[in-house]
Design brief:
binds 4-(N,N-dimethylamino)cinnamoyl-COA; 4-stranded mixed sheet; alpha/beta; about 260 residues; 10 strands
Length: about 260
């Protein structure tokens, strides 16, 4: 598939989307977001893919939504903008999505990384919500997901004062999974994703759904939801296969059924 703003590829069972707007530090314009979601939807529907990786360049994961596209916007134009739909579509992706972040992950770029399920960061990654410098606030989850991840006082420092987090700080505050050497960051993220992609596909989807339920439901409802998903897995061939493989001391062969 030929795209203008992204490059897609696969590595075994991992589907990779790389942003390709280097001159604008991968600023997320409508075209890029639309292509990203088309590519992720296609990987989500592909049985040969188990996990996805989203990445930018070594210098910038993404420096935010495209400011040049927003400068003259009105509230009505923003409401009418399909932009927010792309974020909603990302939430509906069933397979795990890993963000491989190097350099700037700012504004919408940081929100995009946080909307993924896990984040692998290079030593040079920088996370920030600098919208305050433009006279606005985050609009795609930055105030919510950042606060849930790092806590109120640090989130306030970032949202109200534009503070950036280094990779080390992001790790310390639970925003990212791990830091890897910059020159190997994509390779390491794909390796990480490949490990996940090799696991039982239905359990992966339901595990992701169950963890995300914590953001949507009170504890009692979340526990009940988890239990239903747990019981459902006993109707899969993979549950029988996984447990039989354990008992017979062999490797399981997942069917995704
Ligand atoms: N948009 C457009 N162009 C950008 C950009 C951006 N966010 N960031 C960088 N660029 C462009 C620059 O304009 C420059 O282009 P030319 O001037 O060469 O044409 C080129 O990329 C290189 O940038 P710099 O020359 O500035 O590079 P430096 O290394 O000096 O600085 C920087 C790098 C990342 C510190 C700097 O570029 C910077 O501060 N960028 C802006 C960061 C920022 O403010 N990000 C937040 C944007 S607001 C919504 C959802 C989400 C959002 C909105 C709505 N809805 C669902 C409704 C999100 C909003 C945002 O993200």
């Amino acid at each position: 598939m030929d795209y203008e703003y992204i490059i897609t590829s696969t590595d075994g069972r991992v589907g990779i989307v790389q942003f390709n707007r280097p001159k604008a530090l991968n600023a997320l314009n409508r075209g890029l977001m639309s292509e990203l979601m088309d590519a992720l939807d296609a990987f989500d529907a592909d049985d040969d893919i188990g996990c996805m990786v989203i990445t930018g360049s070594e210098k910038a994961f993404a420096a935010g939504a495209d400011i040049k596209e927003m400068v003259n916007a009105t509230p009505a134009a923003m409401l009418d903008n399909p932009f927010i739909d792309y974020w909603d579509r990302l939430r509906r992706i069933g397979k795990p999505v890993v963000a491989a972040v190097s350099g700037f992950a700012l504004g919408g770029g940081c929100e995009l990384a946080m909307a993924c399920d896990m984040i692998i960061a290079s030593e040079t990654a920088r996370f920030g919500q600098p919208e305050i410098n433009l006279g606005i606030i985050p609009g795609a989850g930055g105030t919510q997901r950042m606060t849930l991840a790092v806590g109120k006082v640090l989130a306030m420092d970032m949202v109200l004062n534009g503070r950036f987090l280094t990779a080390e700080e992001a790790l310390q505050h639970g925003l990212i999974n791990r830091i890897v050497p910059t020159e190997l960051y994509l390779e390491e993220a794909v390796k990480f994703a490949a490990e996940i992609a090799a696991r039982a596909p239905v359990a992966l989807r339901l595990g992701k759904e169950a963890v995300n339920a914590v953001y949507e439901m009170p504890l009692q409802a979340g526990l009940a939801h988890e239990r239903r998903l747990f019981y459902m897995l006993f109707s899969t061939e993979d549950q029988k296969e996984g447990m039989d493989a354990f008992i017979n001391k062999r490797q399981p062969e997942w069917k995704g059924q």
